[in-house]
Amino acid sequence: AMDLKARSQRSLQAVRASGVNHGDEHDANLLWNAERCSIMVIDFDCAVLRQPLNHTWLSVLPGVKRKR
């Protein structure tokens, strides 16, 4: 089983990989989610987007038609 330190780092890495600089990374902003068996990062008051997110919209994917 992965230890809590490793799980915390993995969750923080996921936040960073999403283009978010949390700005307040410390233990008080990490919560255990028993349902998902993972660490949740909370308190994004100081967070800043490092870059615009590049989302792929479903409407532009081939084979996906918009409902009218």
From TrEMBL:
Domain Aminoglycoside phosphotransferase: 10-52
Pfam families, per the entry: APH
SUPFAM superfamilies registered for this protein in UniProt: Protein kinase-like (PK-like) (SSF56112)
UniProt-recorded name of the protein: Aminoglycoside phosphotransferase domain-containing protein
Organism: Stachybotrys elegans
